[in-house]
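fyi for ur records
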Amino acid sequence: MLSPRARLALTASLLVLLPAPTLQAAPETDTNKKLDAFMDVFERVRADYVDKTDDTKLIEGAINGMLASLDPHSSYMNAHDYQTMKQTTDGEYGGLGLTVSTEEGAVKVVAPTDDTPAARAGIKAGDFITRLDGELLYGTTLTEAVDKMRGTPGTTVKLTVIREGAPKPLEFTLKREIIQIKPVKWEVKGNVGVIRIASFSKQTGPMTRVAIAGIEKQLGPKLAGFVLDLRSNPGGLLDQSIEVSDAFLDHGEVVSQRGRTKNDIERYYAKGGDLTGGKPLVVLIDEGSASAAEIVAGALQDQRRAVVVGQRSFGKGSVQTLIPLSADTALRLTTARYYTPSGRSVQENGIEPDIVVPQLTDPLAADASRPKLREADLKRHLINEVKAGDKLIEADDKPDPRFADTPETLKKKGITDYQLTYALKLVERAASPPVVQTAAR
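which gave:
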């Protein structure tokens, strides 16, 4: 089963499908003695444990324990986990539309997926799910919790949720649906095209190109620019993050990944041809933007192609290689760190926005004192040896008078998404020709 600290189905994970690497034999030192000790323990458990044991479960437990000692994202996938992963990357499964993790034995919501029962019911990132149909979840593995939330479309499940600031637990009764993950949606706001990318599955790159074409067709010469919304995007497939970045870049490096040795470096480049013709571009990120989303934001930021707006991202800068072990099992192993074109490691630090903009229309998101789950909070996360980050254009270390509005005052102004409204105005200003004043003579 998946490690309890691993994210559900690529949550905050960057996945690359590569052939298995050549394994080198370990020196015959103390390793063989420790393997003998493991077999002694295995045989003793089989023979003397109070209840009859299952060899498969014992071996899988040993494998999971080994991988869990490495980092939060390496894991063994049995047939069930492998199938779940493929369903998610293919973009369809039956359930509620929640991305969850575990924190100290509790199930925590990372993000609800757009247009799903969970999102429509108002479940928010940071909520703790304590019970399902009255059954306590504390201490349940992530895989077991997810299995209970997924199920036959049309059936219902009752969630008990603890939300910070709420005086008592919240109750939600949700009806399961076929969750068809639509990774890309687009709309037109005035003269600006807004492209919302919710995840990086197999369809993300092609659907992004379709979105750009659709916006250009609808607005024509009136098109001022684009907003690329990557907020609460947990990541996904590496090749799709490269394809999305390439759609907005004319040339240059997108990302590099570096393995254990100095020479183990692989670089990925834009193939040429900015599909938007260089139109102004703003990228929106927040603390839920992870992995593949961070690759896109970092590439467009480093290549001076976009202004990044919002909150510091999740900080998941490692690459997991999916190594098939059999027809229906696989090893998901952390094999590299990834770096932005300027050589920044995103691990732990995340992507710092060029302009820090809080989400003032959401009281929970705007509360600076509210704890936010990031990669650096996960046990046994990879350490970023270089802690120094780039200097922000605008720092958020002191109150900013521009962000004094409250959700109530913004609602009166008709603003339901403050960060998006800010980004739209930024694009419109960038597209407007400068006003030149001349003195009369």
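Residues 191 and 222 are 6 Å apart (CA to CA). thats all i got for now
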